[in-house]
Amino acid sequence: MSAPTAATAVRWWHRIDWPWVVIGAIVALAAGVPTLAGEQVADFAASLRPPGSGHLLGTDHSGYDLLVRSAQGLQISLVIAAVCAVVATTLGALIGVGSVLAGGWVDAVVMRIVDGFNALPHLVVGIVIAAMWRGAPLAIIASIALTHWPAVARVVRAELLAISDAGWVQTSRLAGASRWFVARHHFAPALVGQALVAMVMLLPHAVWHESTLSFLGVGLSPDRASLGTLLGQARGDVMTGAWWTLAVPAAALIVTALAFASAGGSLHRRSEPPSGQVW
Q1: Rounded CA gap, 74 and 69, in Å?
Q2: Dihedral of the alpha carbons of 234, 235, 236, 241, in degrees to the nearest 10
């Protein structure tokens, strides 16, 4: 390979946003494998088979193919996490914007309420809410969304306050720009960017919380595959030497969380407004 070609390949390699590539592969795996595999039937005669024995990643205690079962669990966990992230981000953004627009004592009261919610132990509150309607996906979504919106509200409020004092915003106002112009050309782009970043950053938290609730037995019912229920069912299998029943869903959970966390950091860096730019 010539030097210019090698340099081009290196530049191309560094331009790829690998976290999003991994996320694309995860989504394709979660959507494609269960569809291609079709309906799965329990086969207890094939239970706890190790990886490679007719099944790429082995089977679980019910004889289900662990690759298909993990893909199904990943699919459900991702859907629940996405809904939680959208609800929490929307609620937090609305409260943050309303607090800034109201200002004064309303802003102070809203922030004290946000502090109060933020001080609550998320996992304990989530367990209480999920336990009241055990096995209901809506209860899991509510338990996660209602404990994660305060962080979004704080980020949105801080961003809007910082933009209000920024030099390019002050320049626009001195040039005669209306409030609508400032809101549309300065506040809205920043709010959209921060909301997208917050939503992506909430996804790994939501995946972890859903998995934890299901693992503790207050989330989804054991007959519904999710990463949490698969981990919960694997506790007894590991004691018999079937380590793969725990390793496969655990690896899926860790890789998914790390990929979304890295993608959120990358998106945050790209969404930052250019320093000192006058709009």
Answers
A1: 9
A2: 80
Map tokens 């914007």 to a residue: 97
Angstrom distance (rounded) from CA 93 to CA 72: 32
| Tokens representing residue 83 in the block | 């809904």
Residue 276 is predicted with a pLDDT of 44
- Token duo for residue 46: 């094939």
Which CATH number is associated with domain 64-271?
1.10.3720.10
- For residue range 44-80, what is the model confidence (pLDDT) as tens digits? 888 888 888 778 888 888 888 889 989 998 998 899 8
* Contact yes or no for 154/96 (Cβ under 8 A): yes
Residue ranges of domains in the chain: 64-271
According to the model, what pLDDT value does residue 217 have?
Answer: 79
Q: For 154-188, how does the pLDDT look when each residue is reduced to its tens digit (9 = 90+)?
A: 888 888 888 777 777 777 777 777 767 766 777 77
Compute CA 1 distance to the chain's CA centroid, rounded to the nearest angstrom.
41
| CA nearest neighbour of 215 among 228, 204, 205 | 228
Residues facing residue 59 across a β-bridge: 65
**Which helix (H) or strand (E) segment is 265 a member of?**
helix 244-271
Q: Distance (Å, rounded) from C-alpha 162 to C-alpha 264?
A: 21
